[in-house]
Write a structure and sequence with these properties.
Elements lengths: L5 E3 L12 H9 L2 E4 L2 H10 L6 E3 L5 H13 L4 E3 L13 H9 L4 E3 L5 H6 L10 E5 L4 H10 L5 E5 L4 H11 L4 E6 L7 E6 H10 L6 E5 L10 H11 L4 H12 L3 H16 L1
Parallel strand pairs: 1-4, 1-5, 2-3, 2-4, 6-7
Antiparallel strand pairs: 7-10, 8-9, 8-10
Helix pairs in contact: 3-4, 6-7, 7-8, 9-10, 9-11, 10-11
Length: 276
Amino acid sequence: MKEYDFYIVPTPIGNLGDITLRAIEVLKSVDLIACEDSRVTQKLLNHYDIKTKCISYHKYNEKERLTEFLKLLENGQKIALVSDAGTPLICDPGSVIVKELRQKGFSITALAGANAVITLLSQISRQDEEFTFVGFLPKSQTKIQELASENKYKDFVFYESPNRIIQTLEYIKIVRPNSKAAFGRELTKLFEEIKIGTIDEIIEHLKKNTTKGEFVCLIFREDKNSQETDIEKKVKLLINKSFSAKDISIILSELYKVNKNDVYKIAVSKTISKQM
């Protein structure tokens, strides 16, 4: 088997049995393992009786470790990079060192392995293979809604923390009120959960059940060819006349006896789309 200077090694996202035989072989054979949190990685190493020394490498010390790693590699040592779970560089540290090593001509390879996005999408039927993955969403409501609007006609995938998941989906619901959504949590673990439904159904489910574990979420694309409802057309007309979302919701709910909150959400969504 060909040897490399630097190995990017995916680790299990939950079930320790998901590690590959090659990953175990590499982690045993290298001189050093660079990891986010040695306490987390050590559990995996102990499970497979891997004795290789670990050193911390995370987003707060990437540049500091760079010089140290370069010296080790120049002296002929081999290094493996792992993250706490999943594949390094995919919403995890590693970009700084990989860029530098490629510029300096060191040999690098990445092993195949676990990834939460693919683990979720492989369990969900979609129109085709195309999707947009944006990693962790920004905290700003405006930025979240901009991303949701920009990706209205694409399957839109992101990571979210358990303490923010409900609020994030509620932000998205304002601009995408009729969306279909899905999430996966505790993937590959004992209490793995996959849920698919309207965004309203997903939010209500989460409010009634535990939100433990990191989430991978999918907002399904909307049909470009779907006809606008009569209310949506009237909303757009009033927006073009410079009416506010609040005023539009009051006017149309009074005239057509529709739910004021539903009209308001549509008006906000159309206003954001117009501004982009």
